[in-house]
Amino acid sequence: MSQSAALTVQDLEVTFGAFTAVGGASFVAEPGEVHFLIGPNGAGKTTCVDAVTGLVRGSGRVTLGEQEVLGRPVQKIARIGVGRTFQTASVFEQLSVLQNLDIAAGMHRSPWSLMGRRRGVEDRIRDALEQTQLEDLWDRPAGILSHGQKQWLEIGMLLVQDARVLMLDEPVAGMSLEERNATGELLHRVKQDRAVVVVEHDMEFMRSFASRVTVLHQGTVLSAGSVAEVQADPKVQEVYLGTASMTEEDAAQADAMAVQTAGGPHA
Ligand SMILES: Nc1ncnc2c1ncn2[C@@H]1O[C@H](COP(=O)(O)OP(=O)(O)OP(=O)(O)O)[C@@H](O)[C@H]1O
């Protein structure tokens, strides 16, 4: 297991032509925490993750522990230990759960070190199966897994890659309540050794499982702190209550945000 380290994002800026999608956002995701990035549609949440993971070009500074992240190629960033999932799970449907994990583990394996690394890899795969509670499904094709289980497998694939930061884009979208809760529990298990960053619209899920929250709005950080702190912040209430341009989804989030529950069971 690699040493855990904080992901530090400083003054991150991302532009698309003349449009500034992220205009100087800063936050620190600490190991041992589930750090939620929330904000209305178009706030720049996914773009932040895209920039940190090398999918889009950004300026500013991003470090994982002592290592520079920004400006490096996608594969290098993954090798440094920044892993991510997308809104749609991308597992190999024809292959078994175990084969998917094995392929993910191969990322760290060069041909000449195959044998030497094998024992460590097996331990990580066993651990990932256990953490994601997919042990009983290890030989089943990933294609038959439920939507939630596919997301867990993707998280398992990041675990076997020994990711030190997991960046998860809307991991519970489309999940049943039971699957959401199981996902929250999973995130709290895996955060013991690493930082977890979650982009999420589901306010109930956020309230129940966030250790820390950063609220983005129009590409900048509007508010940050504990669940209770951001919920009590009038600026946050204001953007979620919105304007004439508020979407139905924003309205639902505003309603959820207005429920003043001071933190969840894991906060
Ligand atoms: N490749 C791109 N080219 C141009 N504009 C983009 C691109 N990607 C994102 N944007 C714009 O950047 C802004 C931020 O988008 P982003 O997807 O990061 O927001 P978000 O907070 O993740 O929103 P949502 O919750 O709706 O997914 C939006 O206005 C979006 O249209």
UniProtKB/TrEMBL annotation:
GO terms for cellular component: plasma membrane. Residues 7-243 form the ABC transporter domain. Keywords: ATP-binding, Nucleotide-binding, Transport. Gene3D superfamilies: P-loop containing nucleotide triphosphate hydrolases (3.40.50.300). The lineage of its organism: Bacteria, Bacillati, Actinomycetota, Actinomycetes, Micrococcales. Pfam families: ABC_tran, BCA_ABC_TP_C. The keyword Iron does not apply. Coiled coil: none annotated. SMART domains: AAA. It comes from the Bacteria. GO terms for molecular function: ATP binding; ATP hydrolysis activity. The keyword DNA-binding does not apply. It comes from Nesterenkonia cremea. This is ABC transporter ATP-binding protein.
